[in-house]
Structures are given as structure tokens and as C-alpha cells.
Amino acid sequence: MATEVPLRGPHDPGTRASRFHTVRGPMGPSGWLRYPAAWYRAKTGRTPERPWLVPAAIGWLRRRIRSDWSILELGSGRSTAWFARRAGEVISLEDNELWAAATRERLARAGISNVELRLRPVDDFSQDIASLPDAAFDLVVMDFLEAPSVTRIDALRPAMEKVGPGGYLLLDDSDRPGYAEAFELLDGWRFRKFTGVKDEWPAACETGIFQRPGK
After folding, report:
1. What is the CATH number for 175?
2. Measuring CA to CA, which residue among 21, 59, 49 is closest to residue 175?
3. CB 115 within 8 A of CB 80
4. φ and ψ at 204, to 5 degrees?
5. pLDDT, tens digit, for every residue of 100-135?
6. Within 10 Å of residue 191's Cβ, how many Cβ atoms?
7. Angle between helices 55-64 and 29-44 (to 10 degrees)
8. How far from chain centre, in Å, is Cα 39?
9. DSSP structural state of residue 122
10. pLDDT tens digits for range 37-55
């Protein structure tokens, strides 16, 4: 019988059977295939310039993002440049001034100019999202650090309306018990679950991608 091991960190507030389980269950085959490389990167600190998501989800996105896509990103970082290299435009909301400055520096070094990075208090995220045109984005990425007064579910309510027909909404750490409401709000959307080990976080995580009906 597996022993319950509390694993707590920035992407893991719950208790799981082991570090090879998400909150919902065991890590899938793709996670095991990528585990040796993830372990090596965690030990050596050689972090790729890519989103901090489950690697299988990154591969899935790499095969689908097109150069004419519009992407709304909630929470900036290495992911911002990664998305911008593949899409037509990226709007990124970030509440941390130092993190936003680091992201702008990364974009400048890479010569990337198709990103609009907006520094906003996290409490204003929902209002700022609501002000954007409906059905205007091919992908909305929800991966920001929450505040006591604001959760990803709060932002998801207006954000889901910004996804165009056939478009995608990515909710990182979708196995968190606190995100169960997302599945009710997005009832009727197709759901893809990706499990594995993120860079520099050697324990199983889940990235969920919902597809809006249409097209």
C-alpha cells in the first residue's frame, strides 16, 4: 500500500499518495518517459527556456500553435517568449514588478516585439480580462500566482468568454481540489489531461487543456 506523503510547494498544495502521483492519481506513461531528463535538469539547474508546465502539454502545444494565433497569458515568464515565438501576438498580465521586468529583458534580448506585457495588480486581473473582446483568443493560459483574494477560478470566469470557438483554455495544476469548479464552468468543453514532472519540480503535476466547442 502506498504511503501518503504531503508534498507542498508553489504548484502542489495537496496531499498525494507519492511524488509520482498527482492529487487525482498516478503519473501517466509520458511522465515516466520524461522523468530521467527532468531529474537531471533539477539536479544540474539546466532549465530550458520553455513554459513551466507538464512537458507533454508543452509538446502538444508546440504541435498546434500557429503563427496567426492570439494568446492571452495570465502570469508571465519563460513561457511568454516561448509563446511569442510561435504565435502572432501575446497579451500577458503580470502582477509582480520584478518578474515583469525580467520578462521584458528576456523579450528584448530575444528581439521579440509581438508581446504586450501589462503590469497589473492581481486583484484587477478579472476586470482587465473582462474588458477584452469576447472570443478574441485562440489560447488562454492560466498560470499566475494567486493572492488570498483572487484565485485562478475567479479569473477563469471572464477568461472563458475570451476563447474563440474551437480555441483552448489551459489551466495549470488542474488537479488541485480548489479548481474543481473549473470543470463545472467548462462543462461541454473537451478536456485533455497531461501529467508529468515539471522542470525543477521533481514531483508529478497536472496541466489541463480545455477546448471550447465550435469550428
Report:
1. 3.40.50.150
2. 21
3. yes
4. -65, 140
5. 999 999 999 999 999 999 999 999 999 999 999 999
6. 14
7. 110
8. 21
9. G
10. 666 666 666 677 788 898 8
Q: Are 34 and 20 in contact (CB under 8 A)?
A: no
Which residue matches cell numbers 515583469? Answer: 100
Q: pTM for the whole thing?
A: 0.82
133 part of a folded domain? yes
Cell of 124: 484587477
The DSSP letter of residue 213 is S
Q: Which pLDDT tens digit goes with each residue over 126-169?
A: 999 999 999 999 999 999 999 999 999 999 999 999 999 999 99
Domain membership of residue 4 (yes or no) is: no
In the predicted structure, residue 5 carries a pLDDT above the cut 60: no
With bands split at pLDDT 50, 70 and 90, how would you rate the model's confidence at 33?
low
Return the SS3 of 151: coil
129 is in which domain, residue-wise?
A: 22-211
Nearest to 82 by CA among 68, 56, 103: 103
**What spatial distance separates the first Cα and last Cα of the chain, rounded to whole Å?**
46
Q: Are strands 89-94 and 190-198 parallel, antiparallel or unpaired?
A: unpaired
- Name the nearest CA neighbour of 175 among 12, 20, 3, 5: 12
Closest to 201 in 3D by CA, of 30, 51, 4: 51
